[in-house]
Write a structure and sequence with these properties.
Chain A: Pfam families: FAD-oxidase_C (PF02913), FAD_binding_4 (PF01565). Chain A: InterPro entries: FAD-bd_oxidored_4_C, FAD-bd_PCMH, FAD-bd_PCMH-like_sf, FAD-bd_PCMH_sub2, FAD-linked_Oxase-like_C, FAD-linked_OxidoTrans_Type4, Oxid_FAD_bind_N, Vanillyl_alc_oxidase_C-sub2. Chain A: It comes from Denitromonas iodatirespirans. The complex is a heterodimer of chains A (504) and B (354). Chain A is built from 19 helices and 18 strands. By secondary structure, chain A is α+β, with helices and mostly antiparallel strands. The longest helix of chain A has 18 residues. Chain B is α+β, with helices and mostly antiparallel strands. Chain B has two domains: 175 residues, Uridine Diphospho-n-acetylenolpyruvylglucosamine Reductase, domain 3; 141 residues. In chain B, a hairpin with a 5-residue loop joins β6 and β7. The chains are: A alpha+beta (504), B alpha+beta (354). At the A-B interface, β9, α9, α10, α12 and α18 of A face β7, α6, β9, α7 and α8 of B.
């Protein structure tokens, strides 16, 4: 099929060269609109911003802008728009896909100083917050009203709500309570041209196209968010967690399907394989059974009556599906202990290995066995270990590939291992990223998941918001040229995603 | 592409070449909805059937021309349902029409809207390209969320071929309670309940009666009934009540007076418009039968922090949907143009010039 390239923006065809910026003039213009503390351009001052949570990619930008108000955000964007300078928005910098990696010829726009909770309305159950507010802080502030903000990505202590919108962050409770997109009612933002837009409202829908959905997971490519209204949820009166052990991961996967088939939507449903269990047990002493091939954590929340009924049903299903051991949390301390291990999976990986590389594919749950078997094979192919934690309820798998960047070749093997997992996720009918975003990390795999016309659609869609393509260029959606090159490298093998960027 | 997809792609390219509009249509049950109906009908009903349904994955993938009733029957056979309780508005409603219209029923305030359940779509764009976005998994952030963008776009961006939808288990138990009170008190009560961990699945107020539906685990529903009091409706009356609201077969929706839908914050005060009123969605959806002028209704909705839709009316000259501010209108026009450069898909159905 012939592709219609005439209507495509330049950035869709190839990476655009932005190196011809008049840096001195740019800095002078930014200084005119920002207070001195809100502008960094000395390379040492900018070091803390050179990477996000995916630290293997680092890049110092031309300048770091730290606006404190929406007007300052708009002023910075107008300057960059007029000068044709790329802008990369950044929240707390906890992202795992390099989405907030600075652009070498661009401005890094940190929203960290915009960290005010503007208003909480306990009756309407909404909170209006600035993008730099930490995820967990919203729940802390809402707790006095018996309310909380439901999405709880594992980085919730540190990650910002603005970043959550940009990545459509999930968490361990999203099967029942939804992702960020299901819990945000409105965003206010500024386009690259410096125009303020209100998307959504405090009602349950808005006229016209669902731009609110488009903003979620858009990785800072459409507009810069300056204010967010989130939905608050009544805190469940009670929660209990079942810990079940299995002597086989496939059996554990089947048990998950059986829980869902029984008409139960647990508040959380997580799986860990034996190596993951062993890694976290040594770290947090959660009391996990170490001889199990897999453990499941299944949480029920609601009224005490509701939880009692649901836990009994979950227990019955797990017993008939081969659980070798079942424990039900007896009190809140034990429930939290059960979760402590799962939530500590990433740091635990960091403890047993010099480095780890976290993947984020999502697959139909029934294909789990195939995926885990394939990962075992890949361990020997790439000569690296991998431990697996899994949001079993929604099919989102986080294999953690363990490596040591100081051993020559291990980083490259880890990346190749990760790429193989992502390729398989697509082949199994899933996706390369469930909640971490494409960023710069998975950009080549986008060439596999989407056809040329689909990727062209993405570029045209972006151009409806950002005609010049200045917001976060080179991320999330690969240019036609990049995919063509990736296709050639893929054939030769041994590809490196970003040879142009310094690697650590 | 299948034969029918190929035929449609050809028809689209032909229409684009001659700039002749196409009107995408399933069962035609929502012909009443939206601004204008222009173009040659492209009937989607030949493209029907469930493509895949895995109850344990909570996902169904279905062709757009499939009758909504057929899909719901297939789900019910496995003890599952569409969580957003979509209205059919007549026999023959299709899944594609349901997604394109983006209308949700009584469960919306607690379970979510159509867009909250749409996981993926395959479509033909205005160039006749077959495109697939999203998927059959709950979590997917690869690329922009075009699947949700298509939801509620009234066929103005592309021709839906199939959609993947998250489904929910049918509740184990349900109970409907009735309380007599005025409208303002009812709105306050709905918001109070909304802030508590109660298994609320729908609320309504009409003519001095607040009705509440509880859905969930048996024990939770029983406990909530005991706590809340009120008069419990028998199952048949309860079903008739919610069905009447979902399908607009309730007496409130009869007659010829224009029907306005005001979507407002749940805590919004009295609507302050002439005519009769029906409240749903925990206070966030207010139906009004009124002959009052459109401009004052829109101004009132906006003052309350929401928007107004002229849902059903013989005369739509005043515009069906709340006008967009210039910046958003510009984004809408560029989005429309990016999917449908020749402007052939249901032009004017959503807004004039779109």
């Amino acid at each position: 099929m012939t592709a219609d390239t005439a209507s495509l923006p330049e950035n869709a065809l190839r990476e655009v060269d932005y190196s011809q910026v008049d840096v001195a003039r740019l800095i002078a213009e930014l200084r005119a609109v920002l207070p001195p503390v809100a502008l960094l351009y000395d390379s040492e001052d900018m070091r803390p911003y050179e990477c996000d949570g995916l630290s293997i990619y680092r890049q110092v930008p031309l300048a770091v802008a730290l606006p404190g108000t929406e007007a300052e955000v708009a002023a910075v964007l107008k300057i960059c728009h007029a000068a044709g300078v790329p802008v990369v928005a950044r929240g707390a910098g906890t992202g795992l896909s390099g989405g907030a990696l600075p652009h070498a010829h661009g401005v890094l726009l940190s929203l960290a100083r915009m960290n005010r909770i503007v208003a909480i309305d306990p009756v309407a159950r909404t909170a209006v917050v600035q993008p730099g507010v930490r995820n967990l802080r919203i729940s802390e502030e809402a707790a006095a009203h018996g309310l909380y903000y439901a999405p709880d990505p594992s980085s919730q202590i540190a990650c910002s709500i603005g970043g959550n919108v940009a990545e459509n962050a999930g968490g361990v409770h999203c099967l029942k309570y939804g992702l960020t997109v299901h819990n945000v009612m409105r965003v206010r933002g500024v386009t690259i041209a410096g125009e303020v837009v209100e998307i959504g409202n405090h009602a349950l829908d808005a006229p016209g196209y669902d731009l609110l959905a488009l903003m979620h997971g858009s990785e800072g490519m459409l507009a810069v968010v300056t204010e967010i209204t989130v939905k608050l949820t009544p805190k469940p009166l009670f929660a209990q967690c079942v810990l079940a052990a299995f002597d086989d991961v496939i059996k554990a996967g089947d048990a998950v399907a059986a829980v869902i088939a029984a008409g139960i939507i647990p508040a959380g449903l997580e799986m860990m394989d034996q190596p993951a269990t062993e890694a976290v047990e040594a770290f947090v002493h959660a009391g996990y059974p170490l001889d199990a091939a897999a453990i499941l954590l299944c949480e029920s929340d609601g009224t005490p009556e509701e939880v009692e009924e649901e836990i009994a049903r979950v227990r019955a299903v797990l017993e008939t599906h081969g659980a070798t051991e079942i424990r039900v949390s007896r009190d809140e301390a034990e429930r939290l202990r059960f979760w402590a291990g799962r939530k500590a999976a990433f740091p635990a990986a960091g403890r047993i290995s010099a480095d780890y590389y976290c993947m984020d594919g999502t697959i139909p749950r029934k294909r789990l066995g195939e995926m885990l078997t394939a990962i075992q094979g890949m361990e020997s192919t790439y000569g690296l270990r991998c431990i697996n934690v899994f949001h079993a309820g929604d099919g989102n798998l986080h294999p953690l590939v363990l490596f040591d960047a100081n051993v020559p070749g291990e980083l490259e093997r880890a990346e190749a291992f990760g790429a193989a997992i992502l390729d398989l996720s697509v082949d199994l009918g899933g996706t390369i990223t469930g909640e971490h975003g494409v960023g710069i990390e998975k950009i080549n795999q986008m060439c596999r998941q989407f056809s040329v016309p689909e990727r062209q659609t993405f570029f045209r869609l972006k151009a409806a918001f950002d005609p010049k393509g200045l917001l976060n260029p080179g991320k999330a959606i690969p240019s036609m040229n990049r995919c063509a090159e990736f296709g050639r490298m893929h054939v030769q093998g041994g590809q490196v995603p970003h040879p142009e960027i310094e690697r650590f | 592409m299948t034969d029918i997809e190929q035929a449609w792609a050809g028809q689209i390219r032909e229409a684009a070449a001659h700039k002749t509009p196409l009107r995408i249509r399933g069962g035609g049950t929502k012909d009443f909805y939206g601004q204008s109906l222009d173009g040659t009908v492209l009937d989607t009903r030949a493209h029907r059937g469930v493509i895949s349904y895995e109850p344990t994955e909570l996902v169904v993938k279905v062709r757009a021309g499939t009758p909504l009733a057929e899909l719901e029957a297939a789900l019910a056979a496995e003890g599952q349902m569409l969580g957003f309780e979509p209205p059919h508005f007549g026999d023959g409603a299709t899944v594609g029409g349901c997604v394109a219209a983006g209308l949700s029923g009584p469960r919306r305030a607690t379970a979510g809207a159509v867009r909250d359940f749409v996981l993926g779509v395959t479509l033909l764009d205005g160039r006749g390209e077959r495109l697939h976005f999203g998927g059959e998994v709950m979590k997917n952030v690869a690329g922009y969320d075009v699947a949700r963008l298509m939801t509620g776009s009234l066929g103005t961006l592309g021709l839906l071929l199939d959609v993947s939808i998250k489904v929910l288990p049918l509740p184990v138990a349900e109970a409907t309670l009735r309380f007599e009170m005025g409208a303002d008190e009812a709105v306050a009560q709905m918001n109070r309940w909304g802030g508590q961990p109660l298994p609320v699945s729908a609320t309504s107020w009409i003519a001095g009666v607040l009705t509440l539906r509880l859905s969930g685990a048996e024990a939770a529903v029983v406990a909530a009934c005991q706590r809340l009091g009120g008069e419990r409706l028998d199952d048949e009356r309860a079903r008739a009540h919610w069905q009447g609201l979902r399908e607009h077969s309730h007496g409130f929706f009869g007659g010829d007076a224009p029907l306005w839908r005001l979507s407002v914050p749940s805590v919004a005060g009295p609507i302050g418009l002439a005519g009769s009123q029906l409240i749903e969605w925990g206070g966030a959806q207010r139906w009004v039968r009124t002959e009052q002028d459109a401009a004052s209704i829109r101004a009132r909705a906006e003052a309350l922090g929401g928007h107004a839709t002229l849902f059903r009316a013989a005369d739509k000259a005043a515009g069906v949907f709340q006008p967009l501010v210039p910046t958003l209108r510009g984004i809408h026009q560029r989005l429309k143009h990016s999917f449908d450069p020749a402007g052939i898909f249901s032009p004017g159905r959503l807004y004039e010039g779109l």
